[in-house]
Amino acid sequence: MRHKAGRANNDMATNSGYEKPKALIIVPAYNEASNLPQVIQELNAACKESGQAAISILVINDGSTDNSKEVLSSAGVAYLSMPFNMGIGAAMQTGYQYALENKYDIAIQIDGDGQHDPKMIDAMIDAIKGGYDAVIGSRFIDRQGYQSTRLRRGGIVILSSLISVLYGIKILDVTSGLRAINSRLIHIYAHDYSDDYAEPEAIAQALDAGAKVKEIPAVMRDRQNGESSINTLKSFYYMVKVSLAVIMRKLCSGRKV
Amino acid sequence: MITGRLFYFLAVCSLLFFMGIVWLLIKKRIILKYSLIWFFFGIGMIVLTLVPGIAADVSDMVGISNHMNGIYFFLDGGIILILVSLTVIVSELNSRVRKLAQECAKMEKRIREMEAREAEAEV
Q1: Looking at chain A from residue 1 to 60, which residues have their Cβ under 8 Å from any Cβ of chain B?
Q2: A93 contacts chain B (CB < 8 A)
Q3: CA distance A198 to chain B (A)
Q4: B37-54: per-residue pLDDT in tens?
Q5: What is the mean pLDDT of each run of 10 residues along chain A (257 residues)?
Q6: What's the gap in Å between the CA of A60 and the closest CA on chain B?
Q7: Which side of chain B, N or C, has fewer Cβ within a 10 Å radius?
């Protein structure tokens, strides 16, 4: 492990002890019609192979304007279709609400752009079963695969340092969209989750709740098709917004929402 | 110092503004809940115009030597207050729209699955 929690209440986890938990893979997708068939195929294969949990898949079609909905219908996968694009935060929160309402023990986020290797799922579930509240797949531990642009890496380092200063825990890949959480965090996120670009704020939120967080090495692939929706201007907005959100989260620490 | 011509000009503007707000309320183009602040803002403008002594006294009290500057300062303050209140309203609406859309998506899935089950049963 690359880091350790600096808080006494990090011991309050959790799910260790259950034999075969119910896990839900949540795949947020916005205009990913060209990537979804392969992502779903890979996820189905990974679910069948997994001996760690009874895994279901739920795609969140976040108001896509392409034919994602038709692709999802024909793929026979469970999906929620947002009436309009609301951003990844709202999309993921809908997935967490679904997980809470359907009593899932673990929720795993995997992006719909095909950048995450579904083979990581078992390792993540294993870590949750081992007592962690949240597990983050990090591309910066083994430094293999797609490492993102220099500009974005710089932004990630700044956000990582900010979280480190505020919460005393070093998480390298704070923007990773590959993550798993247990039922305790599902409950928290279902009721309170950031609007957009939510990943670093969600980590701060988890740490604020005394969650035990682990980063495990993950290999991120380059996008299979299409382009990322985050350009340079959005990256700047992202940095400012997320930094403020993390600081505000710390300032409001301990307050119930 | 407010001159006679400026006094009439400001009085007419304030009255027109206030009447405009009341007209929008009567026509239900704006909801009273969200426009109360504009309503009071309009009344404030009329009072400040008709009784310029108030603006002069308050300006002197806070150390603004030119009373017109005082009036502009209070108007700016009022506008900032209204903008902040609008941000609060938009944020609340954003939360409600988000919740509504999420419920919509979950309900749509339930209906879709129910319809599929019904179609299967009919076959």
Answers
A1: 60
A2: yes
A3: 15
A4: 888 888 888 888 888 788
A5: 40 53 94 93 89 89 94 94 94 97 96 87 92 93 72 86 93 92 96 85 93 91 63 78 89 65
A6: 9
A7: C
| Dihedral sign, Cα of residue A95, residue A135, residue A117, residue A240 | positive
- Rounded to whole angstroms, what are the CA distances from A239 to A157, A198, A243, B60? 11, 11, 6, 45
| CB contact (8 A) between residue B104 and residue A83 | yes
B102 vs A79, A94, A195: nearest CB: A94
Q: What residues of B are in contact with residue A79 (Cβ under 8 Å)?
A: 109
Tell me which of B90, B102, B109, B110 to substitute to probe the interface with A (most A C-beta atoms closer than 10 Å): B102
Total-model pTM? 0.82
